[in-house]
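Researcher: Here's my situation. A collaborator sent me these components and asked whether they could plausibly form a single complex. I don't have experimental data yet, so a predicted model of the whole assembly would be a useful starting point for our discussion.
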Amino acid sequence: MDVSRRGLLLGAGGIVGGGLVGVAAGYSAASVGSPVTPGDLQQPVTVSPGIANTQVTVSDPYGTDIISFYGPRQAGVDTPLQAHGVFIGLYLHDDTDADRLASMMRLVTDDAARLTQGRGALADLDEELAAAPARLTVTFGFGSEVFNRTRPELKPSWLKPLPEYDIDQLDPAYTGGDMVIQIQGDDPLSVAHARRMLLKDARAFASIAWVQTGFTHARASHPDDTTMRNLFGQIDGTGNPTRGSETAERVIWGVGDGDGNGTKSLQPWIENGTSMVVRRIAMNVDEWDELDRPMQESVIGRRLGSGAPLTGEYEHDEPDFDAPGPTGFPVIADISHIRRARTSDSDEAMFRRSFNYDELPTSSGNQLHGHTGVSESGLIFVAFQCDVDQQYIPIQDRLAETDHLNLWTIPVGSAVFAIPPGCEADGFIGEPLFV
Amino acid sequence: MDVSRRGLLLGAGGIVGGGLVGVAAGYSAASVGSPVTPGDLQQPVTVSPGIANTQVTVSDPYGTDIISFYGPRQAGVDTPLQAHGVFIGLYLHDDTDADRLASMMRLVTDDAARLTQGRGALADLDEELAAAPARLTVTFGFGSEVFNRTRPELKPSWLKPLPEYDIDQLDPAYTGGDMVIQIQGDDPLSVAHARRMLLKDARAFASIAWVQTGFTHARASHPDDTTMRNLFGQIDGTGNPTRGSETAERVIWGVGDGDGNGTKSLQPWIENGTSMVVRRIAMNVDEWDELDRPMQESVIGRRLGSGAPLTGEYEHDEPDFDAPGPTGFPVIADISHIRRARTSDSDEAMFRRSFNYDELPTSSGNQLHGHTGVSESGLIFVAFQCDVDQQYIPIQDRLAETDHLNLWTIPVGSAVFAIPPGCEADGFIGEPLFV
């Protein structure tokens, strides 16, 4: 069935090490030079410049769309991807002991609940900025230090830095952290406001380790089944298990037996908890541009436009790794990204939720990392899985060892967090660590 | 009539000096602590987290909405505001003489025309990233040096740095430049792609002086007549002349006599050309937050929620500057922003098209400018007007001299450009300078 078929394909799209993700179709692209008439995008609505430039008509504004905050699981994990995302790594102050940490979590939980539901934060003077949350979600994750200061015995064994990979060039400015706040939504304004309000709450207890800001595509700009495209032009996230499917339940939350193709003994660190890996992956788009299109497609093993494997026609066609090309070598090269990511074990999988980043080319940040000045682009790669060691590391290991794509990508940041369960209105996120 | 009434109000909303802009209503806000049910936003569509988290439905994707590139005037001037904007200041290389400059303008014009119409740039390998322009516009502006190297006799007399104001703390990182490329659209992905393609074109001829990235609110998130809100929570741009109105035609393009309340002898530097002022205005949101709401409203002279003047009920009510308050002083203070911006001369006006910026709090940039670490926020203030000296400077002078709002805002960047006319498919932007 669809679910198990997707299960088999799980690894196929995952970019983990230096990588990105499978390529698949959202709309097909025309050849260079001809006007693009994307297949499943609507016909262009031409707005002429000048006097005829009337206001865009919005028939059904989505600003007040709300995603529930309270519940057994935190939102922002398998929530459908939003347009904008901010990830904030925090270091706890030395004097933030368990009591103070609980105070902080009460404060940020309460404000996250208010902001995501379209209310101002406590004593928020700019509450107008909160009135249109546009599917705002706030998700909290804990690093090792949070457990050290509360209940070390609950610390999952996988909650530690990823192994050091040769492909890595980790920058402390994007690595580690005692805690993460993930803020996402469809409106950059409500995201910006939430970031400021939550940082105001946190600043008495923690300092900023890093901030990463990213985007996918604007909400309502594409058909609803369009997966986001990264800055190499590849669709990113195709192989994800379907939300709510047996496979997704098992991969993310460790619930059930999955599709029967899994072999691991997955166990969530806490019921309705999961793990989050955040990798900042610099993409050398300038050198990538120097490849021709067939070469780009060969590196991935899929076509850029349709996302189909090189041996198939459609995005979800099963790749045929044995099919020989004209020269006798396989059409899909052994070092191609999809070949290396492939696994037959459906537990060896993750749920990806990545965002593009595109920094100012003049910023000082990571210009070190092979960028040539026109752009400083990449992927805030985010993956959720029940167990980092059993699910994430094997794929990462394979890709770090050999993946053609590694030539154009460099992991420059890395962090792992434990995602605690959600809470109800009388509780706060992380409460099980304080009882 | 509406147009002339707006004409009278023109200055009332303009923030120029250290300022921002009038406050007005998009939706009304509830009081702190109660759930917000914004008046003219639709009812919330609740999406539950977890299994029920199905994909957002998009009935009418706007990704292929296109704004014409070719025409007598450049797009991006009185085009309805998009959600995302990037402004790139360039310095011409020493060897970029008139011939090379013409080559550059041919190249960037051609690619801007292609990208805005949903086609890849010339030899664009990531053309999928161009297929959904989402009202992408590209606008080119020239600084003094472009005229020096081409036809100095066409240089407008107002094309020079603004006067030095006491309130200014200009940072070279956001000031000046020989040329500007303004890229705007509703999808951050197509804007990012266009930025990269156009910088690739330009890099043989020019280097980057500065880059500024901003946002308004996401397209389709708010009702279509909602003016954007800045990071002080104020609606920004209320007093703008109506696109296509007599006043707008005269204010922006120097065409006609306007509404009859103007007194200037406005003359465009070239037919269908105009001017652009870009001011980066840092906003100390942290200190602003320390004011209570009545004080915030007193600084502006308008209510935050509704945008109504303090003497009125609705956004477009005429402020009564003589109305006394309980203590005998005017309700709208003499030093309030709307009082200082006010003018009865409808030619003393501009068309504002500003974007919010909200940088990473850890960036090194302008943390100097009074920010306390939680946010580095402000406004990329953009104003178009036929004649900087006659229209912009008088308002700026008044606001720089006294405006209560100056206590929380600091201009940290400033640049002035001449906007040349549009072109047809066989021409290029700026062609009149090369004949």
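Model: Some features of this prediction you could bring to your collaborator: Residues 63-301+336-434 of chain A form one domain. Chain A has one domain: 63-301+336-434.
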